[in-house]
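Researcher: Next entry in the queue.
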Amino acid sequence: MEIINPGTEDYHIHSLNFSDGLNTIDEIVKYAGEIGLTKIAITDHCQAYLDKRDFHRKTYYNIINRWENIHNEVEVVFGIEADVLNAKGDVSMDIQGKSSEFILLSSHPSPPYEEDPKSITEGYLNAIERYRDRITFLAHPCSVYYQDYIDIKPIIELCNKYDIPMEFNCVNLINNKTNMKNLELVLSECHYIYVNSDAHTLNELKNARNIGMTFLKEHGYLK
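Model: Structure for this entry, 223 residues:
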């Protein structure tokens, strides 16, 4: 298992501007510099997620084309947390019709997943096959959302086949939203791993990855 971002990089963060974070993009970026991060990804939820949960639009997504980091030297990527929608592997991967080259593939309970949760494994496998060239990594694949239905092993095998990393989601670990059996399989068998906060608050941005890295050391995944 190789960790893609073992140092000062966090690639799963949510903002107030476009989804369900508590802080604005500028607040996140400024604080990221204060705590020593060198690269971050603002990865707000896709449009299907926002629509189904009735999030009100705060600003236009294309404003990011005019945004610049005036605070520090932190490199900032704007990505999207996409959602698997059904067993065919249809995926929502836009915000307000705008997509990104940095796509996290995830799933959340209905909505936005539209079908019987028993089909979630099929949905993941088909989505990976269809969009493998666009997926940066699988976000929180070990969440408890579908723990009664998901078969994580074929998903790991398909990700390994296409060199698609999977995520160790630190906020889910902290909040007891991780299926520990599936996490053990991912950490033991997946070739590539991202360790990300999934921060929705500045406190999570500061502490979640550190807690996750400590977990990995204590369980023998890091020397």
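Model: The chain has one domain: 2-218.
Researcher: Noted, moving on.
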